[in-house]
C-alpha cells in the first residue's frame, strides 16, 4: 500500500475545506485535500451571509468568485401574511461586509476547487476516508479512490471539513444529540419562469406559514430558484407521507399565499431532497492532531443561513491554528478554537430557538418597527456574532425574550435599547 506524507490533510472540499486549503496554500504548507464526491455536486447551503466574504478574501478565493456573476444578496426578506420585514445589510450595527451572494452550490464549490487546483493544491475527488489512527498528534489516514485503490496519508494534522459526511465524528465516535428540537426540510430547484422583474425577482425570502413552518425562496442569477420547506419533523413527514418528496413540496407551495401563483405547477429540476433531522453536534471540536469544522462539528438550522458562515469561520481558524502549531507554537485549542467558535454558535442557537418559540418573529413583524432593534439584529443576521459591542450578541440569551415580552404587552421600548432589558 502506497503512503504519502503531508503537513495537513483536509477532509472535504466544500467551503470550509476550501478556505482552509486556500489559506494554507498561501502559507506554503504541504497539504492534501480528499473529497468523497465528484464535483460539481448538489448540496444545500445556497444562501450566504456577509461574514463569509472576509474568509473568501483571506483564503485568496474572492477574486475568482466575484467574476462568476452570482446573484448579489444585499439583505433578506421575511414574510408573514401581509407583513413584510426586510433587513438591509448596509443598515446593520457595526462594521463589516454589506452584501454577499445567493449561489447554486454545485457551481460555487466547483469554482473554488478549480481555483485551488490552479494554485497547485492537490485535491483528490471521489476518494473516501475509511480509517484513521493517531500516534500523538501524528496520524495515518486510509483512503480509497474511485477505482478501489487503497493508500495511506501520514499527516501532522487533520482538518475534518467533511460536512454531513461527518468523517471523524463517525470514526472517533464524537457525535452527540443537538440541543435544538428536530426539524427537517425538503428542497429542489425550479426554472423561475414567472420571476418578476427588478428587485422582487431576485430577493431571497423566508415566507412564514406557521410559527415552525416556513418556505425559502432563493433566486439565482442563472434564472433558476431554490425552493424549500422547513418545519418540525412530524409536519414534514406528514407532507411526505408516502415518501413522495415532489408531492410534499408542491403541497408546501400551495400553503404560501405570497408565492403560490409564481411557483404553482412549476416542474422541479431534480427530485426534491429530504433532509431529515438535520441539526447535529459533537462531544468535542478538536483533539490531539485534529480539528472539526463546519457541519462535521455543528449544524443548527437553515433559517438564518448560518451554516456556510460557521463552516468558513471554523475552517480558516483551524487552518491558522494548525499551521502555527506545526511550526512550533503552543496553541490553546480549547480557548482559541472551541470557546471562540462556541460563542458564535451560542448566539445563533439562541436566535434559532427564539425563532421557533415565536419571540424573534414578534421582533421581526411588530409594527411600527424599532430601527435600533433592527440594525442590531441585522448585524447578527449578517454573521457578525462575535462582535460583543452589539448588545444583541453580548446579551443574546435574554434580550430577544425580554423585548418580545414588552412588545406583546404594549410596553414602550427605551430609546436606548440596552436600558429596555437591563
Automatic annotation (TrEMBL):
Residue span(s) of domain FAD-binding: 5-163
Domain of life: Bacteria
Record Pfam families: FAD_binding_3
Database matches in InterPro entries: FAD-bd, FAD/NAD-bd_sf, Flavin-dep_Halogenase_NPB
Identification of the protein by name: Tryptophan 7-halogenase
Organism, scientific name: Sphingobacterium faecale
Amino acid at each position: 500500500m502506497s503512503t504519502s506524507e503531508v503537513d495537513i490533510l483536509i477532509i472535504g472540499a466544500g467551503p470550509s475545506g476550501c478556505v482552509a486549503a486556500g489559506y494554507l496554500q498561501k502559507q506554503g504548507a504541504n497539504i492534501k485535500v480528499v473529497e468523497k464526491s465528484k464535483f460539481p455536486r448538489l448540496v444545500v447551503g445556497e444562501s450566504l451571509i456577509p461574514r463569509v466574504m472576509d474568509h473568501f478574501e483571506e483564503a485568496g478565493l474572492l477574486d475568482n468568485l466575484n467574476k462568476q456573476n452570482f446573484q448579489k444578496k444585499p439583505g433578506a426578506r421575511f414574510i408573514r401574511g401581509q407583513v413584510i420585514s426586510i433587513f438591509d445589510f448596509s443598515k446593520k450595527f457595526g462594521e463589516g461586509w454589506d452584501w454577499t451572494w445567493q449561489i447554486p452550490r454545485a457551481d460555487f464549490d466547483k469554482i473554488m476547487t478549480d481555483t485551488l487546483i490552479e494554485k497547485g493544491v492537490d485535491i483528490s475527488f471521489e476518494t473516501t476516508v475509511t480509517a484513521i489512527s493517531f500516534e500523538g498528534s501524528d496520524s495515518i489516514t486510509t483512503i480509497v479512490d474511485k477505482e478501489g485503490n487503497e493508500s495511506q496519508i501520514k499527516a501532522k494534522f487533520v482538518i475534518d471539513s467533511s460536512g454531513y459526511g461527518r468523517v471523524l465524528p463517525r470514526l472517533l465516535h464524537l457525535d452527540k444529540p443537538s440541543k435544538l428540537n428536530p426539524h427537517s426540510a425538503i428542497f429542489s430547484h425550479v426554472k423561475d419562469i414567472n420571476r418578476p422583474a427588478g428587485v422582487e425577482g431576485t430577493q431571497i425570502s423566508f415566507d412564514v406559514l406557521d410559527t415552525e413552518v416556513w418556505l425559502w425562496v432563493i433566486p439565482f442569477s442563472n434564472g433558476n430558484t431554490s425552493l424549500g420547506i422547513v418545519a418540525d419533523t412530524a409536519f414534514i413527514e406528514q407532507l411526505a407521507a408516502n415518501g413522495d418528496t415532489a408531492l410534499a413540496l408542491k403541497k408546501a407551495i400551495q400553503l404560501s399565499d405570497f408565492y403560490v401563483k409564481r411557483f404553482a405547477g412549476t416542474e422541479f429540476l431534480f427530485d426534491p431532497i429530504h433532509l431529515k433531522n438535520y441539526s447535529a453536534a459533537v462531544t468535542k471540536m478538536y483533539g490531539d492532531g485534529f480539528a472539526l469544522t463546519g457541519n462535521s462539528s455543528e449544524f443548527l438550522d437553515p433559517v438564518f443561513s448560518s451554516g456556510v458562515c460557521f463552516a468558513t469561520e471554523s475552517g480558516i481558524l483551524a487552518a491558522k491554528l494548525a499551521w502555527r502549531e506545526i511550526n512550533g507554537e503552543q496553541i490553546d485549542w480549547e480557548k482559541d478554537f472551541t470557546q471562540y467558535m462556541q460563542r458564535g454558535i451560542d448566539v445563533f442557537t439562541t436566535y434559532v430557538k427564539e425563532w421557533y418559540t415565536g419571540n424573534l418573529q414578534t421582533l421581526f413583524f411588530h409594527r411600527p418597527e424599532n430601527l435600533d432593534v433592527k440594525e442590531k439584529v441585522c448585524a447578527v443576521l449578517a454573521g457578525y456574532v462575535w462582535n460583543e459591542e452589539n448588545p444583541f450578541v453580548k446579551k443574546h440569551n435574554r434580550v430577544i425574550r425580554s423585548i418580545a415580552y414588552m412588545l406583546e404587552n404594549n410596553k414602550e421600548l427605551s430609546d436606548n435599547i440596552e436600558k429596555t432589558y437591563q
